[in-house]
Amino acid sequence: IHINYKGYDVWEIPPNGQGLVALMALNILKGIEPGPKDDEASFHKQIEAIKLAFVDGKSHITEASKMTASVEDLLSEEYASERRSLIGEQVIEPRPGRPGSGGTVYLATADGEGNMVSFIQSNYMGFGSGLVVPGTGIALQNRGHNFSMDPGHPNALEPGKRTYHTIIPGFLTKDGKPIGPFGVMGGFMQPQGHVQVIVNTIDYNLNPQAALDAPRWQWTEGKTVFLEYGVPGHIVQALSRRGHDIRIAVSNKQFGRGQIIWREEKTGVLCGGTEKRTDGAVAAW
């Protein structure tokens, strides 16, 4: 599934994955003037957009055939405009809208023939299910964790159904041509990381490495937002005045771990960025 964000097509995997959350947030943001990069208003708008997208995602994303709202409706311009109108100067505690009818690895690859892959794999929680395929040493994941035993929940446990899951490799194209793969690991941080990386590269023209290195934020629930060390002090204070419950994280481990490959449109030269927060690497040969 994809949306067009300011001339670039941003691609995410469809439900039951949470890539829809990143696309809904970007759909909201593309109708808002971003403002300067290190301006608290820009942080505020991005945070509010991801909150609106997440509450919709948690309310609707499940097995695609079981969703009560269609992907097309959730990504419609009309619905994005409706949700965008809820963003004001002060913090909100969003409710789901009503549209019309831990151990993860990410890698990005590209070759000289134009082939590109955005790939992610995860056990989810530690050793996953704790079950190992006999004779292989391979532990099976526990991606069924997000099923609910509440029969009225969108992700209620039932046969023939896949539950909401968090792993979402991303891809960027422009005018039908590949720009490159990108991804940010980290559970429910993933769509938030995708939004921040896309805004950094497209709106602020940062190269892949600078886009990944930039200090990040993470919304967790309600009005609570964690900021990574390095966010300017004036932004911290201004966001607090807007009503956000700001927490400064003592570690950067919660802000995801990303990789990007970007193909320069005119020359075809490939540029890679890797994560400073973990053991990422860029390799070329």
Overall pLDDT, averaged?
A: 93
CATH fold description = Glutamine Phosphoribosylpyrophosphate, subunit 1, domain 1
**What overall form do the CA principal axes indicate?**
globular
CATH superfamily: Gamma-glutamyltranspeptidase, small (S) subunit
CATH class: Alpha Beta
Strand content: 15-25%
**Strand order, largest beta sheet:** 1-2-5-6-10-11
Number of strands: 11
Helix content: 25-40%
Structural summary, described in words:
This protein is globular. The strands form 3 sheets. A 6-stranded antiparallel beta sheet has the order 1-2-5-6-10-11. Strands 7-8-9 form a 3-stranded mixed beta sheet, covered by helices on one side. Strands 3-4 form a two-stranded antiparallel sheet. With 285 residues, it is an alpha+beta fold. 39% of the residues are buried. It has a single domain (2-101, 105-122, 166-273), classed as Gamma-glutamyltranspeptidase, small (S) subunit (Glutamine Phosphoribosylpyrophosphate, subunit 1, domain 1, 4-Layer Sandwich), CATH 3.60.20.40. It is 26% helix and 21% strand.
Short description:
The protein is α+β, with helices and mostly antiparallel strands and 285 residues long. 26% of the residues lie in helices and 21% in strands. The chain has helices at residues 19-29, 40-60, 71-74, 77-84, 190-203, 208-213, 233-241, and strands at residues 2-5, 8-11, 104-110, 116-122, 170-174, 177-185, 217-221, 224-227, 245-248, 257-263, 270-273.
